[in-house]
Specification:
The structure holds three protein chains of three kinds. By secondary structure, chain A is an all-alpha fold. Helix content of chain A is about 70%, strand content about 0%.
Chain lengths: ~290, ~325, ~325
């Protein structure tokens, strides 16, 4: 109950950033992800070879000075393919999560704000979606649609929507009880204004946490679908499809599976650590 | 005099991101046996921190006791081991918290919660403890056959009675009651205050009552300490504080309360706000809000001086010309 | 003086799993322009629900509300939005009544933006914000602060400023000072009184604190379990109370004076459930003077003295 020092002016995000910065592992994860984003953007300049350059004189080479992570069955440089693959992974992760947040968030906000029959109908629909295992849903959607980047994003997004709808609905239900919502009704604010100006900005924190953790899941799903041949098609490099095509050589050429797998693992790991860090930084209960 | 609790020069600080918050500063306090002391102050005055300090419950980090002694029957609680302290806490000193809604475990019956607290401090069989718990319930005015009910089946006033029963279950010598009736309605508050003063007389327990309500203090206290920004600014008997008010802050508090018996058109509030405890003024902490501040007040923090039989005040201006004016 | 607001047989029931909760049950009163009507009662007596029905935050189950002789019970859409300009509310909790992501400026400016005041001109609106801030005693430098940087008293001033932004004639104040420390509480009470004089405001002042209600009100309604049990001019209530509940309530207030010890009436038991209440007087179960009649017939509010109304079979 101590009063806060009022010397410094700080907003909520400023405070959250300050807390996040003190979390060393989250900052490390953020650094890794930053590297990944740079790799994705400047892949053409960073990668030592073009990702589709085939060199039949140097197939199945183990890591060497020339090919840092070795080459695959077509003699393509694995490091270059991983670097280019980060584009697809980040793109799929980001766009599917964004789609899922927009639709799930809107459904959750409407459902939580209006309650009653609307809530009941929407949430039962979400329950049905949730009853189907996410991976299975994504697989069937990806199989029904044609393989490809857009359809991959759609398949993953649809499977993720119920999760966001629930998170947002729960947040909206709590925020709806706050007196400032009544206060804005009292000054004549429309429902849309209340939802967008007062409710959604206040439930951004749980959404961000969920999105960071969800992005890890989405990247994993994308890799899994590609591994099954339902996602990105060769020769476009994607970590999952690289694993898939390397699996028949796993006994003799370990590097072909190990490095794409490691790339997936490190990315997921970094996203999860960052997600945990964000949750701690954004949790208002830790605010003094 | 036989003092159960004696606090000497106690200072407690919290280290936060924004600097060091001085919650309690050089606090001196005595509690005589069988006496009830009202510790009065506003939000952030350091009342609860003081009580937690006595209980050894200051969250560390960020809280640190930076100096002083807390003597309980002559032993310094701050020097005891954790085990010894735990034995005293609960057995000899118990605390009643403000919020009756969250101080009880919702999945254990109220009777079992009382019995459990009895069994922690006394070697009794389950059946014996249950019997004693029933007696405790009756003592606080709840029929013993409600032993098997859960907290949610009780109203706010009843829950607070249960908490009082738990606090009394080990026959403590001192009870620290932190705003025990603040969350209750007035008619229920009257019932609970009535109960507390009755039990206190019966058991001759000493008590420190923490409150912001000067009306509640009159009902059950013998002595009053007024706290401001982590310091005691005035200390004395009920009559001394209420009828011979000496400190400007105490006067301000009385002036802020709307008088229910007379029609006053305007209240006389204290201007300004309590100083930031991480950035206390150099001199007297009340100086920025005080009508009678002078140069000395800005420079030097006044000591607590005795101005009458057991009446202490922390003000440079006491006794100077103009003193004795009405509030 | 002329009548500003009239409430007739207002009812608000909530459907709960355990039955129908009678939060406000057949309440009628009227308020003159420039007057403060205090509504006092303990938690669960329906006083906040009453205030929320009047400002259309809740839809009443029955009864009528007239504002300047116009029936506003069921207005919607544009007419409701228009009525917001004349009726505002100040909330209890200075912590949860302000959006933590908005600055002081955007909080006070929001009503002006919604109602396109000052021709929708942002500079003019900002000027108006500064004027209101000065009126309620907020320093100009706080304009870009966030609520969590301020203390309870200042936050409550922001809430008052927001209510004043539309220049209403009538304000429902729901426990506006109960979350504040006494010295701050006195500052806010003085402010509200000054504003009333300057702007000829009409208040409904809802509180559980009898000394506060006595201080600020001209007339007082005492509520118990959804009913008004006593209604009279403020100074009269404290001189002579008729309803046994009012008597007990008054005797229970702790007074910060040594020789104020009075005959204390300690009520038996606790407030009974407002869900599907039994017929008869709601207070009968705790009353010291219960008669057989009290358990059967609910007493009506009747005038026992000039301007002093009581709902009790004893009179």
């Amino acid at each position: 109950m101590l009063k806060r020092n009022k010397k410094t002016k700080k907003g909520f995000w400023h405070d959250a950033w300050y807390r996040l910065r003190k979390n060393k592992s989250a900052m490390f994860a953020l650094f890794i992800l930053g590297l990944l984003v740079i790799c994705a953007i400047f892949a053409d300049y960073i990668a030592p070879y073009p990702y589709s350059l085939q060199d039949y004189n140097h197939t199945f080479e183990f890591p060497s000075r020339k090919h840092l992570l070795g080459t695959d069955n077509f003699g393509r440089d694995i490091l270059s393919r991983i670097i280019h693959g980060s584009r697809i992974s980040l793109l799929v992760g980001f766009s599917s999560i964004t789609t899922a947040i927009i639709f799930g968030g809107l459904l959750g906000a409407v459902s939580g704000f209006y309650g009653g029959k609307v809530d009941n109908a929407l949430m039962r629909a979400m329950d049905i979606l949730m009853a189907i295992p996410g991976m299975l849903l994504a697989i069937s959607l990806a199989a029904a649609l044609k393989p490809g980047l857009t359809n991959l994003v759609i398949a993953i997004a649809i499977a993720d929507i119920p999760g966001y709808a629930r998170v947002v609905r729960a947040a909206v239900l709590t925020i709806k009880e706050q007196e400032y919502i009544e206060a804005s009704q009292c000054i004549g604010a429309s429902d849309g204004r209340i939802i967008f100006k007062h409710i959604l900005p206040n439930c951004l924190a749980p959404i961000i946490v969920q999105a960071t953790l969800g992005m890890a899941g989405a990247i994993l799903s994308a890799s899994a679908l590609s591994f099954l041949g339902l996602g990105i098609q060769p020769p476009t490099p994607e970590w999952g499809s690289m694993l898939s095509s390397a699996r028949q050589y796993i006994r003799s050429y370990w590097h072909m599976t190990a490095f794409p797998g490691l790339a997936i693992m490190i990315t997921i790991f970094a996203l999860n650590i960052l997600g945990d860090g964000l949750r701690d930084a954004l949790d208002p209960r830790l605010k003094n | 005099m036989d003092n159960v609790i004696e606090i000497k020069d106690l200072s407690i600080q919290y280290a936060t991101d924004e600097g060091i918050v001085k919650a309690v500063n050089h606090l001196n306090l005595q509690l005589a046996r069988g006496e009830t002391l009202g510790l009065v102050g506003e939000t952030g005055a350091g009342k609860t921190t003081t009580a937690l300090g006595i209980m050894g419950l200051i969250p560390d980090p960020p809280g640190v006791i930076t100096g002083g002694e807390i003597l309980f029957e002559g032993t310094d609680l701050l020097k005891l081991s954790k085990q010894r302290l735990r034995a005293i806490r609960g057995n000899k000193i118990s605390m009643i918290f403000q919020d009756p809604m969250t101080s009880l475990n919702p999945v254990v019956t109220v009777g079992d919660q009382i019995a459990e607290s009895i069994r922690i401090h006394e070697k009794l069989s389950r059946a014996e403890a249950a019997l004693k718990a029933k007696d405790m319930l009756e003592l606080v005015g709840i029929p013993g056959d409600r032993y098997g009910e859960y907290p949610h089946q009780f109203s706010g006033g009843m829950k607070q009675r249960v908490i009082i029963a738990i606090a009394l279950s080990c026959n403590p010598e001192v009870i620290l009651a932190d705003e025990p009736t603040t969350a209750l309605d007035v008619t229920i508050q009257a019932q609970v205050l009535d109960l507390i003063s009755k039990l206190k007389k019966e058991k001759n327990t000493s008590m420190i009552l923490i409150t912001h309500d000067l009306g509640v203090v009159v009902e059950i206290c013998d002595k009053v300490a007024i706290m401001y920004a982590g310091e005691i600014v005035e200390y004395g008997s009920l009559e001394q504080i209420y009828d011979q008010t000496a400190h400007p802050y105490t006067k301000g508090l009385f002036g802020s309360i709307p008088d229910i018996e007379a029609k006053t058109s305007r209240l006389k509030p204290i201007p300004g706000l309590m100083p930031d405890p991480s950035n206390l003024p150099e001199g007297c902490s009340f100086e920025p809000r005080c009508e009678r501040s002078c140069q000395l007040c800005k420079e030097e923090n006044p000591p607590l001086i005795e101005i009458g039989n057991g009446h202490f005040v922390k003000c440079h201006n006491y006794g100077k010309v103009g003193e004795g004016e009405d509030v | 003086m002329s009548e500003l607001l009239r409430v007739e047989h207002l009812k608000k029931y909530f459907d709960t799993p355990r039955g129908l909760l009678h939060a406000v049950d057949d309440v009628s009163f009227s308020i003159e322009r420039g007057e403060t009507l205090g509504v006092v009662g303990e938690s669960g007596c329906g006083k906040s629900t009453l205030g929320r029905c009047i400002v259309h935050l809740l839809e009443p189950t029955g009864g009528k509300i007239f504002f300047k002789d116009e029936d506003i019970t069921n207005i919607r859409g544009e007419r409701l939005k228009e009525s917001r300009k004349s009726m505002q509310m100040i909330f209890q909790d200075p912590f949860s009544s302000l959006n933590p992501r908005m600055t002081v400026k955007s909080i006070i400016m929001e009503p002006m933006i919604i109602h396109k005041l000052h021709q929708g001109n942002e500079a003019a609106q900002e000027k108006a914000v500064l004027e209101i801030m000065e009126t309620v005693g907020l320093a100009k430098r706080l304009i870009d602060s966030y609520p969590h940087e301020l203390d309870g008293g200042r936050r409550q001033r922001i809430g008052i400023a927001r209510a004043l932004a539309l220049e209403p004639e009538f304000i429902v104040c729901d426990e506006p000072v109960s979350a504040l420390d006494v010295s701050i509480q006195a500052q806010i009470l003085n402010l509200m009184r000054d504003l009333q004089e300057e702007r000829n405001l009409t208040y409904i002042f809802i509180t559980h604190d009898l000394s506060v209600v006595k201080h600020i009100s001209d007339r007082i309604c005492v509520m118990y379990l959804g009913n008004i049990v006593e209604q009279c001019p403020a100074d009269k209530l404290f001189a002579s109370q008729f309803h046994p509940y009012t008597q007990a309530l008054l005797s229970a207030i702790p007074i910060a004076k040594i020789n104020a010890k009075r005959e204390r009436i300690i009520l038996k038991g606790e407030i009974t459930s407002p869900i599907d209440p039994e017929p008869g007087c709601r207070f009968a179960a705790r009353c010291l003077y219960t008669k057989p009649e009290c358990l059967e017939v609910q007493p009506d509010l009747k005038e026992v003295e000039d301007g002093h109304l009581v709902a009790c079979h004893l009179y």
